[in-house]
Design goal:
Layout (H helix, E strand, L loop, with lengths): L4 H7 L13 H11 L12 E6 H16 L18 H17 L6 H12 L6 E8 L8 H17 L3 E5 L6 H8 L5 E10 L28
Antiparallel strand pairs: 1-2, 2-4, 3-4
Helix pairs in contact: 2-6, 3-7
The structure holds flavin mononucleotide.
Length: 226
C-alpha cells in the first residue's frame, strides 16, 4: 500500500481481529529489516525478536488461556506502566475500556464476556503470527525501552505498508512461562512486549474501535515562540 509517512502514522491503529491467512516469513523479514532502521542509544540495537506462527503459537494461546481460566494472575517480566488513582491516566484507561466494551457489546457487570475479551487478547486476537520483543538482561531494565518503542512503532508502520495490521500487546507476554516453554527464549533474555500481526478482518467489529487523543495544547509547552 503506497502512502506517505504522515498518512501511515495517521492511519495506524490497533487491529484486534485478523484473517487466518498465514504471513510468509519473507514478508515479516522485510518488515523487521525496515523496522531495525530505528534509532537506538549509542546504536546499541537492544532488540531481539522471536517471531511465532503455527503450532507453537497455538500452544502458547492454549497455555495462556488455561492459566487465565485457572485463576493464575497475569504478570509481566518488566515493570508495566502504573499511575495513581486520581490521575488523568486512569481516566483515559477507563474511557478506552468503556468504548471497547460498548463496541463489543459487553455490559460492565458481565464478567464472562469481559473474560472472553481478555482471552482474545491473550490469544493475540487470533492473529496468524506474533512478534515478541526481548532484551538481554545484561542491559539496564528501563534504558532500552525507549529504543524498543521506536522499533515497535516502525514494525507497525512497515506492516501497514504491506497491508498488514498489528496490535502491540502487553497481554501477549502476561504468562511469560508459557511463552518460554514453547519458544525456548533463553533465561538471559527479558521478555518485554508482543505484537500481533496479520491481515485485518474488515468484518470484525473489534476493528471499529477508535482511540482518542488529547489536543496538542494539553501535552505541549512552547518556549521562546511568539
Ligand atoms: C506498550 C503497549 C501495550 C499495549 N498493550 C495492549 C494490550 O495488552 N491489549 C490491547 O488490546 N491493546 C494494547 N495496546 C494498544 C493500546 O490500547 C492502543 O495503542 C491505544 O489504545 C491507542 O489506540 P491505537 O493503537 O488504535 O491508536 C498496547 C499499546 C502499547 C503501546
Amino acid at each position: 500500500m503506497e502512502m506517505n509517512i504522515l498518512d501511515a502514522i495517521r492511519m495506524r491503529k490497533s487491529i484486534r481481529g485478523y484473517k487466518p491467512d498465514p504471513i510468509p516469513k519473507a514478508l515479516i523479514m522485510d518488515i523487521i529489516e525496515a523496522a531495525i532502521k530505528a534509532p537506538s542509544a549509542v546504536n546499541c540495537q537492544p532488540w531481539e525478536f522471536f517471531v511465532i506462527t503455527g503450532e507453537p503459537l497455538l500452544k502458547i494461546r492454549e497455555g495462556a488461556v488455561e492459566k487465565f481460566r485457572a485463576g493464575e494472575n497475569p504478570h509481566s517480566e518488566h515493570e508495566l506502566i502504573t499511575w495513581t488513582k486520581d490521575s488523568v491516566y486512569g481516566a483515559r484507561q477507563v474511557e478506552l475500556a468503556k468504548h471497547i466494551f460498548q463496541i463489543m457489546g459487553i455490559a460492565r457487570e458481565d464478567k464472562s464476556k469481559r473474560n472472553e475479551w481478555m482471552e482474545r487478547g491473550l490469544r493475540y486476537f487470533d492473529a496468524p503470527a506474533a512478534i515478541l520483543i526481548c532484551v538481554d538482561k545484561k542491559l539496564s531494565e528501563s534504558g532500552p525501552l525507549l529504543d524498543l518503542g521506536a522499533v515497535m512503532q516502525n514494525i507497525c508502520l512497515s506492516a501497514l505498508h504491506h497491508g498488514l495490521g498489528t496490535c502491540i500487546e502487553d497481554q501477549g507476554v502476561m504468562y511469560p512461562e508459557v511463552v518460554r516453554q514453547h519458544t525456548g527464549i533463553p533465561a538471559s533474555k527479558r521478555l518485554i512486549i508482543a505484537i500481533a500481526i496479520g491481515f485485518p478482518d474488515r468484518d470484525d467489529v473489534a476493528n471499529t474501535i477508535t482511540s482518542t487523543r488529547e489536543p496538542v495544547e494539553n501535552s505541549t509547552k512552547w518556549i521562546g515562540f511568539d
